[in-house]
Amino acid sequence: MLMLTDWGTSNFNEVHTYIIRSGVLQPIKFTDNKGKKISGAYWASRNNGIRSLSGSRVQFKYYNNMQFKYAVDTFKLNVSKLELRLSDTRYVDQSSWPNSGMGDRAYLESLKAAASKGMLPGRSDIKIGMTLKSVQSNLNKPKSRGNEEWGAFYYYSQFGLGFDSYMHELNAKSRIAILQLYNEKQNLAPQNVRLWLGKPSSEYYNEAAGGYEMTYRLGKHTLVFNYEEEDDLIDFTNIY
C-alpha cells in the first residue's frame, strides 16, 4: 500500500492511499462503517499520524480543534472493493498512540447490551428494579447522596443510582429507577454514538436540564446520552 500526503490544514495533512494490483496503481477510497464513500483522502497529523495494525487495519490520528482531543480512526482494508472502511473511532487526550482502553464501537455495543437488560455495564448484580436493601448488600457506601428532580440519588465514583423515592421516603424496599454513567474518560462524541448505534429514537434540547438529550429505546429500557452543546462530548448517560 502506497500513501502520499499533501498539505491539509495547520493541524493535519491529507493522505491519499493507493495499492498496486497486477502492476497497476489504483486509488483507495475511504468509506464509513456502512461502505458509503467519505472521501478519496483522509487526515493525519504530520508527525506519527499513521500506523498499521494486524488484520489489514490502518489507524489515522489528528488533533480535532472542535473537541480539543486527538481523534484516532481505524479503517480496515478491503482490496477487492478498493476501500478502507471505518471500523472504529476514538478520542484521546494525549498525542501518543493509545495502546489500551476501549474504542467507541466496542464500548457502545457493550453499553447497549447492558442497557437493553436494565443492567449497569460490567456489574450484572446492579440493575433497575433492585431494592435499596440489595444495593446496600452489594455495594460500599456511596461517596454522597442527595435528591434530584425525580427522586433520591446515590453517587459513586463511576456511576450513580437513582431511586423511586426521595431521601426522606427511602426505605429498604425503595427500588432503582435510573442507572447513571459518567462518560468523561471515554471522550464519547454524539456523532460517534449515531455512527455506531444508528439514528436515535429522539434527540432534542431539554431546557429544564440545560442540555441536549439523545435517546435510544431498547425494548423495556431506554438509553439517554446527555451533553451541553451540539459539539460537546457526552457528559453522562442514563439508563431507565
Task: Assign a percent range to the helix content.
Answer: 10-25%
Please report the total strand number as a whole number: 20
| Distance separating the two termini | 47 Å
Query: In this structure, how is the largest beta sheet organized?
Result: 10 strands, mixed
Mean pLDDT over the residues: 92
- Rg calculated over all Cα atoms: 22 Å
Low-confidence sequence ranges: none
- Gross morphology is elongated
Tally the helices: what do you get? 3
Structural class: mainly beta
> How large a portion of the residues is in β-strands, by DSSP E?
over 45%
Q: H/E order of the elements? A: EEEEEEEEEEHEEHEEEEHEEEE
Describe this protein's structure.
This protein is mostly beta strands. It has 3 helices and 20 strands. It has helices at residues 104-116, 132-138, 190-197; strands spanning 2-7, 13-21, 24-31, 37-39, 41-44, 50-53, 57-64, 69-78, 83-88, 91-92, 119-120, 123-127, 144-148, 151-155, 159-163, 176-182, 202-206, 211-218, 221-227, 236-239. Strands 1, 2, 3, 4, 5, 6, 7, 8, 9 and 10 form a 10-stranded mixed beta sheet that branches. Strand 7 and strand 8 form a beta hairpin. Helix 1 crosses helix 3 (190-197). The termini are far apart.
Task: Indicate the topology.
Blueprint: E1 2-7, E2 13-21, E3 24-31, E4 37-39, E5 41-44, E6 50-53, E7 57-64, E8 69-78, E9 83-88, E10 91-92, H1 104-116, E11 119-120, E12 123-127, H2 132-138, E13 144-148, E14 151-155, E15 159-163, E16 176-182, H3 190-197, E17 202-206, E18 211-218, E19 221-227, E20 236-239
Parallel strand pairs: 3-9
Antiparallel strand pairs: 1-2, 2-3, 2-5, 3-4, 6-7, 7-8, 8-9, 8-10, 11-12, 13-14, 14-15, 15-16, 16-20, 17-18, 18-19, 19-20
Helix pairs in contact: 1-3
